[in-house]
Design goal:
Blueprint lengths: L14 H11 L12 H9 L2 H15 L3 H24 L3 H8 L3 E6 L2 E6 L8 E5 L7 E13 L1 H4 L5 E3 L10 E2 L4 E13 L5 H8 L8 H30 L4 H15 L4 H18 L2 E3 L3 H8 L2 E4 L11 E7 L2 E5 L10 E3 L4 H13 L4 E3 L9 E3 L2 H11 L3 H4 L5 E6 L7 E7 L5 E7 L1 H4 L9 H16 L3 E10 L14 E9 L6 H10 L3 E5 L4 H10 L10 E2 L14 E3 L3 H13 L4 E5 L5 H6 L2 E5 L5 H6 L2 E3 L5 H37 L11 H12 L1 H5 L26 H25 L4 H19 L10 H17 L3 H7 L6 H8 L2 H14 L3
Parallel strand pairs: 9-20, 9-23, 20-22, 21-22, 23-24, 24-25
Antiparallel strand pairs: 1-2, 1-3, 3-7, 4-5, 4-6, 4-7, 8-25, 10-11, 10-19, 11-12, 13-14, 15-16, 16-17, 17-18, 18-19
Length: about 850
């Protein structure tokens, strides 16, 4: 935090002092990032592992003279890079959103005169005036405060506005932070920090770091290294063996390069892009906006979901759920601040519940605003807790609710020392009604109440039970006076206890189901909040996240914690501590998704493997920092998104199984062909043609396969597992050997019978691979993903044309086949299909 300027008199700084301090500390705004040049963005995109694979393929196809193939691959590079740059540009609004969140103007005292100035001109040492509805322009220490209540939910995660008072030092209760909102009261404060040194500025600094490579990108980096090494060794081996058999050096060099192209699945980036784009489209239809395409796959790899509490797992609105009266209890239904819902109580409790809610509505400074063309729901003006009391009163039946005919004539506002509020109302009969609400430990005092001890004792026990369950509890009492008292606080004795109200920020309807669905999918959930430990613990138990005996780790306890294993609830955490928790989880090897909606969540959203923000009630800062935005704030969409991510990852593995099995079969054919009497099984052009036909449209179409049945009942992939892990390497080699054996068998038989063996082997190699493409489908026997079916038929047709059309025969060095020969070699597709289905039955993914 910046050092304060020398203390000025209450009149505030002089204009000369303010000008000097503005030059010293700079404007009171979040510093904008330096713009990134287009060249730098392009270089970053070209360094992506997927793009590097494509660039290698472009070079190799140019070397072999296959210019059409090179042009197609280069087009994919341009498209991928363009999409990546556009996504990056869209994702750079987080700091701009922070700037928009700060106050546009501030009221300051300069030279003893009050004036309004742009908030960016506020400097340390300025004296600012705050009133209800103001956005605090900078961090400041309170000099004066009257009934001051500040909403810090977006910054700290507190579900309830915080009382602020004047006091020594810079304790949290004696200062206000930039970006928070004054809900009630007024204050005068001296600015202690501005710009980057303020609470908002420190959060902006934390936003500078990103998550790095996604799990899929990290896995593909390793895959690329393995493929490059294996392909290089095998292709050199093929070249050397060819030279030893007397083949020309030029022919074998071209053949070896062609095999490199065959071994490297250059369609993989296109498959990934298509799968991600389709996933993003499906998720958009479900109300989830994808701001970074790779986020779709990352969700499928998530092992831990870390979530904020207020506004994420909860509604973000205070609701009165239960009330207690000396004659019985009642439950209030409905969410939000609208009148939808009812007060459910036994008939004997109706009158007592009505009196309690009527008194709570009188001892109240909040108001409710009905929906408008701009706001589609009821909103609260003032203290959300008081708004919850008004809402509950509006849910009484009209004949019981009526109109409270009592004019307020005096009041004593709530403050953190008295911990209660009292109002005095003139009644039509000339008497006066004193209503009081406050903390139970203050009002449930024998010296304050006129009720018998058993009533007070029962109220204390019920208040403790409500508090243990995570509710904010208020006691409400009243007294009828014959005349106005000389001292209203002194009249707060001899009160009649009306009862207790239990208020909470209720969990979202989908929250418990989301946690249960994640648990079934093997995904752990942890709650990270800035709210009270008791409130967080109660919510976690209510959602089924923790058991009754599980503890809570607070932010202050983090430094001394040796491990975070087994901890599901973190409370009283600041933005820096949220980052530490996310970093600790990732260091443990977890793939972390962070769900949040507040400014305080933005750094964690950016640091996590994937950030998920609420689109409706979330702050713009959180939305801009996230990779995925839930437009309808529906937590159930997270489960759908995880399923979509798992589908994408499964399709990438499906393509690798198909593509690498085909590539390895081509290498085996070239290595083993001479051993069975086939001198040069395939020409370089034929290798490239087969690769284009099989890895082209059919390969890309595999990226559109639907999700496997039961995908959400399996645990996530281990974070350290290779993309070819879980036995996929073995399955690739098995299918590769089947394809190679079938192709060599046909070639050997045709060579022995003096038939056009090379062309028959050429068609067989492609047909068997295309059969595998149909066999590895997620849902065989259905018409889901018809694109794959048509792409396979089209590829087989083009393969037949390669040995039928004269100009393709000249280009590829093929020979015309008879109709029976074409039918026989095309039928080998059944072998590939049967092998893939048998393998899937024996070793399901």
């Amino acid at each position: 935090m910046q050092t304060l300027a020398p203390l000025s008199p209450p009149a505030g700084l002089s204009e000369a002092e303010a000008t000097a301090l503005l030059a010293q500390h700079g404007p009171n705004q979040v510093a904008a990032r330096r713009p990134v040049s287009l060249t730098s963005r392009v270089v970053v995109q070209l360094r992506d592992p997927l793009i590097l694979v494509l660039l290698v393929a472009v070079v190799l196809t140019l070397v072999t003279g296959d210019y059409p193939d090179a042009a197609i691959i280069a087009f994919v590079v341009v498209v991928n890079s363009t999409v990546g740059i556009l996504q990056e540009l869209k994702a750079e609004g987080a700091v701009a959103a922070l700037i928009a969140l700060t106050a546009p103007a501030a009221r300051v005292r300069r030279g003893g005169v009050g004036r309004s100035i742009p908030a960016r001109e506020v400097v340390p040492g300025d004296v600012v005036e705050l009133a209800q509805g103001d956005i605090v322009p900078a961090d400041a220490v309170l000099l004066e405060a009257a009934a001051l209540l500040v909403d810090e939910a977006a910054l700290t995660g507190e579900s309830v506005p915080v009382d602020k008072t004047v006091g020594p030092g810079d304790a949290p209760g004696h200062h206000v932070s930039a970006g928070t909102v004054v809900v009630r009261g007024r204050a005068v404060a001296r600015v202690s920090a501005t710009g980057a040194a303020s609470a908002m500025g420190r959060i902006a600094t934390l936003l500078d770091t990103g998550p790095g490579l996604t799990p899929l990108q990290r896995r593909l980096v390793g895959l690329g290294r393995v493929l490059a090494g294996v392909a290089a060794v095998l292709c050199v081996l093929v070249g050397v063996l060819g030279l030893l058999r007397g083949q020309s050096l030029e022919l074998m060099v071209v053949t070896a390069i062609s095999l490199v192209v065959a071994a490297v699945p250059e369609s993989l980036p296109a498959v990934v892009t298509l799968a991600l784009a389709l996933g993003a489209s499906r998720m958009a239809a479900r109300g989830a906006i994808v701001r970074r395409l790779s986020a779709v796959e990352t969700l499928g790899s998530v092992t831990v979901i870390a979530t904020d509490k207020t506004g994420t797992m909860t509604e973000g609105q205070m609701v009165l759920e239960h009330l207690w009266t000396p004659v019985g209890e009642a439950t209030i239904t409905g969410l939000g601040y609208g009148p939808d819902g009812e007060v459910q109580a036994e008939p004997s409790t109706d009158l007592a519940a009505t009196d309690l809610l009527a008194a709570a509505a009188l001892c109240n400074d909040a108001s409710l605003e009905a929906p408008t063309a701009r706001t589609t729901h009821w909103t609260a003006v003032g203290d959300p807790t008081e708004a919850a009391l008004l809402t509950a009163h509006s849910k009484l039946p009209a004949e019981r609710r009526g109109t409270v005919d009592a004019r307020r004539v005096d009041e004593v506002p709530f403050d953190s020392l008295r911990r209660r509020m009292s109002t005095l109302h003139a009644l039509p009969d000339g008497r006066y009604l004193l209503t009081c609400k406050g903390a139970p430990e203050v009002l449930l005092d024998d010296a304050r109440l006129a009720d018998p001890e058993p009533v007070c004792s029962a109220a204390r026990g019920r208040a403790a039970a409500y508090a243990e369950a995570g509710f904010r509890v208020l006691a409400v009492a009243q007294r009828v006076l014959d005349g106005p008292p000389d001292d209203l606080p002194g009249a707060e004795t001899g009160l009649h206890l009306l009862g207790l109200v239990a208020i909470a920020d209720p969990p979202r309807l989908a929250a418990a189901a989301t946690i249960a669905a994640c648990r079934d999918a093997g995904i752990a959930t942890v709650l990270i909040t800035g709210d009270h430990a008791a409130t967080a613990s109660a919510l976690a138990r209510r959602l089924g996240l923790t058991g009754p005996d599980e503890g809570v780790l607070t932010g202050d306890d983090l430094a001394g914690a040796t491990t975070l294993a087994g901890v599901h609830v973190f409370a009283r955490t600041n933005p820096e501590q949220k980052l530490d928790i996310i970093a600790a989880l990732r260091a443990r090897g977890e793939v972390v998704a962070m769900i949040g909606d507040g400014v305080n969540d933005a750094p964690a959203l950016r640091r996590a493997d994937i950030g998920v923000a609420m689109g409706g009630r979330g702050t713009e800062v959180a939305r801009q920092a996230a990779d995925l935005v839930l437009a309808d704030d529906d937590l159930a969409t997270v489960v759908s998104a995880v399923e979509e991510g798992r589908r994408v990852y499964a399709n990438v593995r499906r393509f690798l199984l198909y593509g690498l099995a085909g590539g390895s079969s081509e290498i085996v054919v070239m290595l083993a062909g001479p051993l069975v009497g086939l001198p040069l099984p395939l020409l370089p052009a034929q290798i490239l043609w087969v690769n284009l036909m099989t890895h082209g449209l059919p390969g890309v179409a595999l990226g559109a396969e639907p999700a496997d049945p039961g995908v959400m009942t399996r645990p996530p992939r281990p974070p350290g597992q290779s993309v070819l892990g879980a036995g996929l390497w073995g399955r690739i080699l098995q299918l590769g050997l089947v394809i190679a054996a079938t192709s060599l068998g046909v070639g050997w038989w045709a060579h022995a019978h003096e038939l056009p063996w090379q062309s028959m082997l050429f068609v067989t190699l492609a047909a068997t691979q295309l059969g595998v493409a149909i066999g590895v489908r997620a849902r065989p026997g259905t018409w889901q993903n018809p694109f794959l079916l048509w792409a396979t038929v089209a590829a087989l047709g083009l393969q037949v044309l390669a040995v039928t059309l004269p100009w393709l025969q000249d280009l590829l060095g093929t020979t015309a086949l008879t109709l029976p020969q074409l039918a026989a070699v095309s039928a080998t597709a059944v072998v590939g299909y049967a092998a893939a289905r048998l393998q899937r039955a024996l070793t399901p993914d």
